[in-house]
Design brief:
With about 325 residues, the chain is an alpha/beta fold. It is built from 10 helices and 9 strands. It has a single domain, classed as NADP-dependent oxidoreductase domain (TIM Barrel), CATH 3.20.20.100. Helix 3 links the parallel strand 5 and strand 6.
Length: about 325
C-alpha cells in the first residue's frame, strides 16, 4: 500500500495525507476496550498513517489515554504526529494551562504536536486573545509545538490569528465531505491563501458515504448517528445518489466507496488531510487505501457534479 505525504501548512512537517480520528475510542462510538483501540492504531500506522487526531472531550479523556498508551507501547512516538483539541468551555487562561497539562499526562508525552481549539467559547464569553495568548505561551514553553483551530468561521479565525505575536496557527479543522461542502465557499479558499492545512472531520459523512446505509436501511435508534440530520430519509435519498456513483466506480478502480470518497477530497485541494475514524483495524487499513493513487479527472468531475446536487436539510422537527 503506497503512503502519500504532504507538508502540514507552512511548517513543513511531513504527514500522511490521511489521518486517523479517534473519537471512536469512547462510549459514543463503542471502542471502550484498550486492546481494541491499540489494534486500530497499530493497523493505521502499519498502513502508512502517521497523523492521529484526538480531543479532550472524546470519552472524557479516554481517547487521549488509549491513543497515548498505544503509541507508547508500539514504540512509535518519534514517527507520529499527535493532534488533540481543547473544548470551548476550557478556554479561560488558567484552564488552558490546566487542560493542556492533563492532556500531556493522559497522552504520556512531553509535548503535544498540535493543540487545536475544538470550538469557540460560545457560551462563556471568554475573549479570543485570552486563550490564543495562553496557547502561544505554551508554544514558547515547549509544551505544545503548534496551534490549530477547529469549527471556527473565517472572521474568528482572522481574529484569533491577530492575537498571536510570535507564531501563527497551522491548520483549521472543518466539517467537510462530498455532501457537506459549505466550507468551499470561504474556509478552504482562506486556508489556501494563508498556507494553512485543512483537516476535514466527518470526511465520510459519519458513514453515510460508505454504502452501508440506504434510505431503507438507516442507523439503529441507539446508534450515535440516529439523530444526525444526514440520516433522515429525505437527506439519505439524496446522498444515496452519490453513493451509487461511488459504487459504480468501485469496480473501475478496485477501491471501496469510502476510499473513493476520501480520494475525491485529496484530489480536490492539495492542503486537505481528512481524518476518518475506525472502529475496527480493517477500517483503518481501508481508509489508508485512499492514498497513493488518483481519480481520473472525468471521474472526479462526475462525482463532483452529482454531489453538488445534494442539498442537506438540517431541519428535522
Amino acid at each position: 500500500m503506497a503512503t502519500e505525504y504532504m507538508e502540514l501548512g507552512w511548517i513543513g512537517e511531513k504527514v500522511s495525507r490521511i489521518g486517523l480520528g479517534v473519537w471512536q475510542f469512547s462510549e459514543s462510538w463503542g471502542v471502550t476496550e484498550y486492546e481494541d483501540a491499540k489494534k486500530i492504531v497499530e493497523a493505521a500506522f502499519d498502513a502508512g498513517i502517521n497523523f492521529f487526531d484526538t480531543a479532550i472531550v472524546y470519552g472524557m479523556g479516554k481517547s487521549e489515554e488509549f491513543l497515548g498508551r498505544a503509541i507508547r507501547e508500539l514504540g512509535i512516538r518519534d514517527e507520529v504526529f499527535i493532534a488533540t483539541k481543547i473544548p470551548g468551555e476550557m478556554l479561560a487562561r488558567d484552564d488552558v494551562f490546566k487542560a493542556t497539562q492533563n492532556s500531556l499526562k493522559r497522552l504520556g508525552v512531553d509535548v503535544i504536536d498540535l493543540m487545536q481549539v475544538h470550538w469557540p467559547p460560545c457560551w462563556h464569553n471568554i475573549p479570543t486573545c485570552e486563550y490564543m495568548r495562553a496557547l502561544e505561551q505554551l508554544v514558547l514553553q515547549g509544551k505544545i509545538r503548534y496551534i490549530g483551530l477547529s469549527d471556527f468561521p473565517v472572521e474568528l479565525v482572522e481574529a484569533a490569528r491577530n492575537c498571536l505575536s510570535t507564531t501563527d496557527i497551522v491548520s483549521i479543522q472543518i466539517r467537510y465531505n462530498l455532501v457537506e461542502r459549505e466550507a468551499e465557499a470561504e474556509l478552504i479558499p482562506y486556508a489556501l491563501q494563508n498556507d494553512l492545512a485543512v483537516i476535514p472531520w466527518s470526511p465520510l459523512a459519519k458513514g453515510a458515504l460508505t454504502g452501508k446505509y440506504t434510505p431503507e436501511n438507516l442507523p439503529e435508534f441507539q446508534d450515535v448517528r440516529a439523530r444526525e440530520p444526514l440520516f433522515t430519509r429525505e437527506n439519505m435519498e439524496q446522498i444515496y445518489e452519490v453513493v451509487k456513483v461511488l459504487e459504480e466506480l468501485s469496480g473501475k478502480y478496485g477501491k471501496t466507496p469510502a476510499q473513493l470518497a476520501l480520494r475525491w477530497l485529496l484530489d480536490a485541494y492539495p492542503n486537505t488531510l481528512p481524518i476518518p475514524g475506525a472502529k475496527r483495524p480493517e477500517q483503518a487499513r481501508d481508509n489508508a487505501g485512499a492514498m497513493g493513487w488518483s481519480l481520473a479527472h472525468e471521474d472526479w468531475l462526475r462525482i463532483d457534479q452529482v454531489s453538488r446536487r445534494v442539498k442537506i436539510s438540517r431541519v428535522t422537527y
